[in-house]
Amino acid sequence: MEAVQVEALAHKIWIAEYRITDLLTQVHPEKWKTSEVTRNSFNQTLENLHKALEGLEEWRAQFEKRPDSMYFGFQTYAEMNAALPRLDGVARAVSQFQNPSLGAQYSQAGNQLFDLQQALQPYLAYLLRNPDQLLYVAQTNLAGCQNELGSALRGQGGPAKPLKNTFVEFHGRRHSNGQPDARTSPRGGKKKSASKTEKKAEPKSK
User: How many domains does the chain have?
Assistant: First the structure.
């Protein structure tokens, strides 16, 4: 689908929105002969339909400007999906409590919106397929490069060489202040006295 065709499709979605919004002005649940519970439930459905249509128009307008945007296209599709069941609920309630002919017009507008959603789906699949294919090709190329690199490096590295255990001998003790102990020699032995103890002289006999 070309960009011009996508823009035309987005414009058709806008026409369907306009038709549904116009039909909603003709609904008057306050005049229905029904219970308050049923009327409140319908009003909630009606409010949710209005919100879905507002969201649809917001995304549709952006998608019409950017028909190549996968994100805008998906959001447009999702809002159409949100509006359709609520529109069906309104159509059934209007047919039952107000006017069967008016309810049929709602159903017709709903069928038109559904057909446009189905026409959009193949284009979204096309947008989603391209990134998926690019990712697959990139992953395949990366795996091929890793296999080629592994084959090229296989067998090039020699066997692991064992390292000899090296014993390091430390000499001297240190006080807590980090200074060597003066009582030990550089090799760890006891330090000898600088002078020998003199013996006392014995008195000579006469």
Answer: 1
